[in-house]
Amino acid sequence: MDKNPIIKILEWYNEAKKSEINDPDAITLATVDDKGFPNIRTVLLRKIDNDSFVFFTNYNSQKGKEIEQNNKIAFSFHWKTLAKQIRIRGITEKENGTVADDYYNSRALGSRIGAWASKQSSILNNREELLDRIKLMENKFKSNPPRPDFWGGIRIRPLSIEFWKEGKYRLHERELWKRSNIDDDWSIKNLYP
Ligand SMILES: Cc1cc2nc3c(=O)[nH]c(=O)nc-3n(C[C@H](O)[C@H](O)[C@H](O)COP(=O)(O)O)c2cc1C
């Protein structure tokens, strides 16, 4: 048995890349607000490292503020073509150095300008307002916008990972990997479906 669950995640993810029509890296990400009310949304998981995962977003968005207040989050993959799900719970840290710069610089110019123009999750009075802000940022930065300091990565270090594989008669296979701290070894248990 591999002692790093990320090896198995990569196996499943690489399989999904071959069969999913689009966005095999789409995850459903859950955070909680200051009243303990959960919030979910889809984001793209852009990096899977040996010990952690990274997605990119606006730090001033709803999710950004919720993560700032509470760094415990959860997310899941669901690959319909594989009938597989992975659920992950973990703790976050900001990834706002060269990893974020490199990813930002790899994006299309329109997306880089868009990151500057969008006050993600704030009230937008009308579409014109956004289009005006895009023009403003295009004029300001021309073809070379730097990464905004309010936009970057969130790195997630996992504490719990459940692999779910569909079984006949709904008798699915569930394998739960857990550890109390990020430096601990993983324990592996199976769960009833
Ligand atoms: C397929 C898909 C991929 C998305 N990827 C991202 C992403 O990588 N980063 C992001 O900030 N929002 C992404 N979004 C938009 C989010 O779902 C969400 O609308 C936005 O981040 C605002 O969420 P918040 O108000 O909870 O902060 C994506 C939406 C979809 C449907």
List of distinct ligands in this structure: flavin mononucleotide
Lateral strand order in the biggest sheet: 1-2-3-6-5-4
CATH class of the largest domain, named Mainly Beta
Biggest sheet statistics: 6 strands, antiparallel, barrel
For the termini, the CA-CA separation is 21 Å
Helix content: 25-40%
- Count the helices. How many? 5
Order of helices and strands: HEEEHEEHHHEEE
Secondary-structure-based class equals alpha+beta
- Counted up, domains total 2
Q: Count of DSSP E strands?
A: 8
Residue windows where pLDDT falls under 50 for at least 5 positions: none
CA radius of gyration:
19 Å
CATH superfamily of the largest domain: Electron Transport, Fmn-binding Protein, Chain A
- As for the CATH topology of the largest domain, it is Pnp Oxidase, Chain A
Shape descriptor: elongated
What does it look like?
- This protein has a six-stranded antiparallel β-barrel with strand order 1-2-3-6-5-4.
- The protein is elongated and about 55 Å long.
- The two termini are 21 Å apart.
- 29% of the residues lie in helices and 36% in strands.
- It has 193 residues and is an alpha+beta fold.
- It has two domains: 5-96 and 152-191, Electron Transport, Fmn-binding Protein, Chain A (Pnp Oxidase, Chain A); 109-148, no CATH class.
- Flavin mononucleotide (FMN) binds at residues 23, 26, 39, 41-44, 55-57, 61-63, 120-121.
- The site of flavin mononucleotide has 15 residues, from strand 2, strand 3 and helix 2.
Task: Provide the fold topology.
Blueprint: H1 5-19, E1 26-32, E2 38-48, E3 53-58, H2 62-69, E4 72-79, E5 84-95, H3 98-106, H4 109-117, H5 127-141, E6 151-165, E7 173-178, E8 187-191
Antiparallel strand pairs: 1-2, 1-4, 2-3, 3-6, 4-5, 5-6, 6-7, 7-8
Helix pairs in contact: 4-5
The structure holds flavin mononucleotide (FMN).
